[in-house]
Amino acid sequence: GGGRCNFTNVHTKPENFISQNPHFCKSALARFSPGDFISLVEKYKIGYHEKKLGQLFCNNSSRDIVDMLLTECSISNVKIKTNCEVTEIKKSDNFYIKTNSDEYSSDSLVIATGGISIPKMGATDFGYNIAKQFELKLTDISPGLVPFVLNNNPFSEISGISIDCIVTIDKTSFRENILFTHNGLSGPAILQISNYWHHGKIISINLLPDLNIEEILNQNISSKKELLNFLSDYLPKRFVEIFFIKYFKSKSVNKLTVEEIQKLSSLIHSFKIKPDTTEGFEKAEVTRGGVDTNEISSKSMESKKVPGLFFIGEVLDVTGWLGGYNFQWAWASASACSETV
Questions:
Q1: pTM of the entire structure?
Q2: Which CATH number do you get for residue 179?
Q3: CA-based Rg of the chain, rounded to a whole angstrom?
Q4: Nearby residues of 238 by Cβ (< 8 Å), 6 or more positions away
Q5: Torsion of CA 242, 244, 247, 251, to 10 degrees
Q6: Residue from 200, 191, 205 nearest 277 by CA
Q7: Would you call 229 helix, strand, or coil by DSSP?
């Protein structure tokens, strides 16, 4: 969150999450709402604000949230071990955890290690390996909330230009900015729709969602203005220049035929792009997929096969939208787990 921690979203609901079992997240989200976490934030007198679309950020710094959580841990006598690598986990009656510094025994073991996105920040497949060790199924793993790569990118010259658009795959749409990059496409709308993208799928982009370019052109059909300059009143000029080089020959508005107006309208309101790939886990904000939720109790987050073994947060096959939803899932699944551990 730019260092300010987008700690929840006030509009959180199960429909904001992707999972092979879309019902799994309902119980935990219902029992620990955004309001519950906001109450904790307010208890610590941490200033916050809504940026947009229900996204709540700290006024000051994400450090405020970290300090709050550390204080809560201290109150509950939680011991935090850093620089501590788990080298072995076994289970008989209890769990036995061997690390590079000590050994531990416990009735319960909670895996809260996240996905594999952004490995330079320490992300690993530790949680998935524990699931495999105890013979729990995993769903397919792929990058989520991730920029697209376009081979022979036609927009590399306008990297940094953004446009407010509606981006659609099948029946799922998001309206926010798209951002042209050296590699392809990014920005909030692209990151959101990437959760629904699979290789080979085409995305449709409405470049002027509040206007009808066909009506506008018909209303100005007597204009002698060059089409490139005409459209630059509605879209960034550098984008329009590339657009006319690659997709449509510019001419004066009064020389457009009915068919050309319809073609241009289709291009602008339903601009089709077929991404070649994504920028992968290195740039993905979340990991799509994870521990199969059919293996886990939705009430307690406990493994159905291995008593005392819990999985919470992003390590599970529950992937939220951009905008604080994944944090809310972390808080909610942790709270559900805490009622049983």
A1: 0.94
A2: 2.40.30.10
A3: 24
A4: 157, 158, 161
A5: 180
A6: 200
A7: helix
Domain-terminating residue out of 253, 278, 303 = 278
Do 93 and 190 reside in the same domain of the chain? Answer: no
Q: Do 306 and 330 reside in the same domain of the chain?
A: yes
- DSSP strand E in the chain: where? 6-9, 17-18, 48-50, 55-58, 86-91, 95-99, 103-106, 109-111, 142-144, 148-149, 162-169, 172-180, 184-186, 203-206, 271-273, 277-278, 286-288, 309-311, 319-320
Select from 262, 278, 294 the last residue of a domain: 278
Paired tokens of 5: 């921690």
What total number of domains does the chain contain?
2
Q: Tokens 């307690």 identify what position?
A: 300
Give yes or no: residues 159 and 136 share one domain: no
Residue 132 within any structural domain of the chain: yes
Q: How is residue 101 annotated by DSSP?
A: S
Tell whether 1 is covered by a domain.
Answer: no
Q: What is the CATH number of the domain that holds 318?
A: 3.50.50.60
Task: Tell me, yes or no, whether 179 lies in a domain.
Answer: yes
Residue of 294, 295, 289 lying closest to 307 (CA atoms): 295
> How confident is the prediction along the chain (341 residues), in pLDDT tens digits per residue?
678 999 999 999 999 999 999 999 999 999 999 999 999 999 999 999 999 999 999 999 999 999 999 999 999 999 999 999 999 999 999 999 999 999 999 999 999 999 999 999 999 999 999 999 999 999 999 999 999 999 999 999 999 999 999 999 999 999 999 999 999 999 999 999 999 999 999 999 999 999 999 999 999 999 999 999 999 999 999 999 999 989 999 999 999 999 999 999 999 999 999 999 999 999 999 999 999 999 999 999 999 999 999 999 999 999 999 999 999 999 999 999 999 99
Amino acid at 147: P
CB–CB of 109/158 below 8 Å? no
- For residue 257, give the amino acid letter: T
Looking at the fold, whether 171 and 243 belong to one and the same domain comes out as: yes
Could you list the residue range(s) of the whole structural domain that residue 260 is in?
148-278
